[in-house]
Amino acid sequence: MAKTALSKASDVRGKSADELSASLLDLRKEQFNLRFQRATGQLEGTGRVRQVRREIARVKTILAEKKSSATKS
């Protein structure tokens, strides 16, 4: 599985809304797989769960900002 390397908010802000939506979908799939691995006892990198959760929050926040700015203008 390919890991998404969204590290900084500035990197995420440079993407379009469609790219952000696709990224959000990938992150949610990864989150599901990590939860499944944790439940079955196969998860090795427990820190990745936290990273993915924060990346999801970052993408959702920036998507909301873009929608808000689009409706204002």
Description:
It contains three helices and no strands. Helix 2 packs antiparallel against helix 3. It is elongated, with a radius of gyration of 14 Å. The N and C termini lie far apart (39 Å). The model has no long low-confidence stretch (mean pLDDT 89).
Q: How do the strands and helices of this protein lay out in sequence?
A:
Blueprint: H1 9-13, H2 17-40, H3 47-72
Helix pairs in contact: 2-3
- In DSSP terms, counting alpha (H) and pi (I) runs of 4 or more, how many helices? 3
Proportion of residues in helical segments? over 70%
Largest sheet, described in full? Answer: none
Q: Per the principal axes of the C-alpha atoms, what is the gross shape?
A: elongated
Task: Throw out a few tags for this protein.
mainly alpha, 73 residues, elongated, 75% helix, 3 helices
A few lines on this structure:
The protein has 73 residues and is mainly alpha-helical. The chain contains 3 helices and no strands.
